[in-house]
Specification:
heterodimer; A: 219 residues; mainly alpha; two-stranded antiparallel sheet; 7 helices; 2 strands; 65% helix; 2% strand; flat; B: 322 residues; 15 helices; globular
Chain lengths: 219, 322
Amino acid sequence: MKEDKLRYYAENMDIITRRDGLLFNNVVFMQGLGLAPLIVVATSVENALMLCAAVLMLLIPTRLLAGVLSRFAPLRFRGVIYGTVAAGVYVGVSLLMTRIFGMQLQYLGLYLPLLVADPLIIGRFSLNKNEKIFTSLRKGARVTVSYIFTILFIATVRELVGFGTIYGVKIINVQLMPIAQLVCGAFMLLALFGALWQFGIASFKKRINLGVKNLDSSN
Amino acid sequence: MNSRLLKSGRHPGYAENVDMLIALAALLAMAVFLYGLRPLVMVVIAVATAVITDILVARLRLQTYNRTELSSVVFAVMFVLMLPASISYYIVVVGVVVLVGLGKHAFGGYNAYPFNPAAVGYAVVAVSWPGEVFRYPLPFSHPPVFGAAIDLVDAPAHILRMGGLPNIDSVNLLLGNYAGPMGATFILAIFAAAVYLLLRKRITFHAPLTMLLTCMIIAGVFPRVNGVSSFEVMAYELCSGALVFATIFLMNEPATSPRNPVAKSLYGVLLGVTTMIFRYFGAFELGVCFALLIANALQSYIDRGIANFTARNLGVTELERR
């Protein structure tokens, strides 16, 4: 790695980690958010796409609206506000989703409304400070994109090793690991990917630190 | 954990694991006698996979691989002996990788696993491929080493589960001359192996005895089949499936069973009750491995509870006991 790049990473690692929800601070593998729907219903790409649509429509509006509304109330009520707003937004989202996906929505069952109570959507309320409108938009978009990417990734892997298909198209003829379709198998896969992910991030940071140290000693 | 080497350079668990392998070799010989060469090939594949996984995990954990640490091999052989002789090699490989990687090393390796790795491997395989794991070839049908076996039948445990009574001669029942897991049906050979292990002090009699007694009582008091003598039902319940095999080999695993004799007996009762519940109401006919996973989760509480109870009754304070 080049010197200026090394320096840049070494100096800004904290900010990068805080701002990045996809690689360095992945919402699922590093933070463990939104696990319930991911593990139980994201068994195929089709289900994952429905979940993605729900998160896309639910997350940013909830965060934005709750952020605005909690300015008009004492800070201690922000939990109530976030929860109520999420539930209210969900009513609209569920009507829209039924319109778009129809009967297929039944596959998601309880886990679609359960998204409302997930820290992924309402986790912001735990911080003791109101959020600016622009910040909530930006961060909401960031979390949404990272979660959608991760859920699609996991669902693709689960469908491939469980059924041998991707989005219903046959790729391989054998069922490599049918247990990936079950909840226990999903936990195993998630643990495996989480370990690999954290190993990758840790070794990258180690490389940066060692590189900077070498630079300093050679200067 | 406990990975210091002895003076001879051997792993401390070496002698015990060799004894277990000797006992398992007897069962493997019976399996080869009944099903031809395929069981032997399966065991060789399983052992090779276990050793390779061990080496890979050792590299991953930046440790040196110790070839006298044989516990993975023992678990792999136990796991294979609970499968039908006709199962495809791919399933054996996946099961052993899961058993060694997930069941043993993910929790810290030798003596640190909370669940019996062989039971973990069996549970994963049974849930993944129930169609292959619960269909068995008939004895002396010699499934081909390469290619698929032709005639597969259900085990007597399956017939019991469906509410029927299997029709097997009692001598055949003791000799394992019926369709079932390839290494777990010969009650007499298992009994001989148990005597060997008892004489070598590798296992104790408390847990197996209480477990088998509990299963017998439950089978006799609440028979699944009506209209037959309760003795017959008991014999079928105990001898079908891998119950006796699991009590001798899987249950006495030192890291996953209690140390106190009273706790061991209680553990046996618990495992017996859970196994029978799994058999009566579970989704699969072979419930002992799933029951073992549940009992393993509770065993340390039983051990500690009994130790505290006896200490309190003898007037020993917590501090003195430490």
